Amino acid sequence: MTANIQLGGHPDLGESVGVTYSRSITFIPTYSCVFACGYCAFARPTPLAGLEEAAACFIRGVQAGCHEVLIMSGEGVMAFPSIRQQLTQWGFQDYNDYLSAVCRLALDHGLLPHINIGNQSELDFRRLRPFCASMGMMLETTSVALMRHPAHRHAPGKHPQARLATLAAAGRVRVPFTTGLLVGIGETWADRQAALSAVATLHRQYGHIQEVIIQPFTPHPRTAMAAYPGPDLSTLVKTVRMARDTLPPDVVIQIPPNLTPSAEARRQLLLAGARDFGGISPEPDHINPDEPWLSPEHYAAELAEWGFVLHLRLPVYPRFQTPQWLSPTVYPYVCAKSATVTNGGNGLQEQASGVVPRSQPG
């Protein structure tokens, strides 16, 4: 069977039933994090990556046909004296100043930045928005009880009040935003419903939520929750259905296909209402390195057997590709990318070379 990957289009535009994904590469400025979540195998103290390392990552992404770079790190990075010292030596005011430079560099290489670095204030979003196509942060849960559970006992930044404040701040600044639930970390069904309802309420107020990820907890060796079981398929299917019933129709439900390694599991989650696979990278998953992605062609062939079509999308969804949602700096880059994605062909490769119209700083 020939894989049927169509460039452009999106289910929220009223076209044939489709599943979207973004061709993305990940850049990790640092794995350092002030929190110690009980399920996390990501965080460890590391120096800050230099701009040369960032450029090398972006070049790899361009060569692999990516059009998005996920810029992701641990939280509370400025709490580390060694990182503050690095930033000062490199001439940056703080971590967000450094991230702005990284994003500008990504744009220069022809990649659209999507930042995910945890809790942010309204001021933080205003500083980063001029150079980002979109941003994100996992809500995970609104359960205060989990602050006493191994999941979040040593992660005060995961308090629901702090996470919801970040989501609201992103809405006030008009940042196209991704959030999600982490399923199976000790929350109840009532907790899942409450979290989804909270996201729905914020989206109805600000209109900024692009997608909600339903991500299964994956146990990792040498973590506090290594012996905890992950959620079963029936739990994930029911959670996707709950999300689809609770969230406004313009909010897309995303499932990470590498964390649902069974084709049958992916099929059931799609039938329950999921319509996006998120970023698929040519490199390993930095959060779940033992769970590799398959190729987009593999997923496309699989989907075709079930009556779905795989569509390529940008990190910022079509309805957010306006001057109201994007800064004057980022908007021309997104327009150029969107035109090539919509027209199909090899335009993504050409556009990724960095030939993008310039604009006034935003």
What does the model show?
This protein is α/β, with parallel strands linked by helices and 362 residues long. It has one domain (5-352): Aldolase class I (TIM Barrel). Helices cover 35% and strands 15% of the residues. The chain contains 11 helices and 10 strands. It has helices at residues 51-63, 81-89, 95-108, 122-128, 160-172, 189-206, 233-246, 263-272, 296-305, 330-343, 347-352; strands spanning 5-7, 18-27, 68-72, 112-116, 134-136, 177-183, 209-216, 252-254, 276-280, 309-312. Strands 1, 2, 3, 4, 5, 6, 7, 8, 9 and 10 form a 10-stranded parallel sheet that branches. The longest helix has 18 residues, at 189-206. The N and C termini lie far apart (46 Å). Mean pLDDT is 90; it is low at 1-15 and 345-362. Keywords: 4Fe-4S, Iron, Iron-sulfur, Lyase, Metal-binding, S-adenosyl-L-methionine. Its EC number is 4.3.1.32.
List keywords for this structure.
single chain; 362 residues; alpha/beta; TIM Barrel; ten-stranded parallel sheet; 11 helices; 10 strands; globular; disordered N terminus; lyase; iron; 4Fe-4S; 7,8-didemethyl-8-hydroxy-5-deazariboflavin synthase
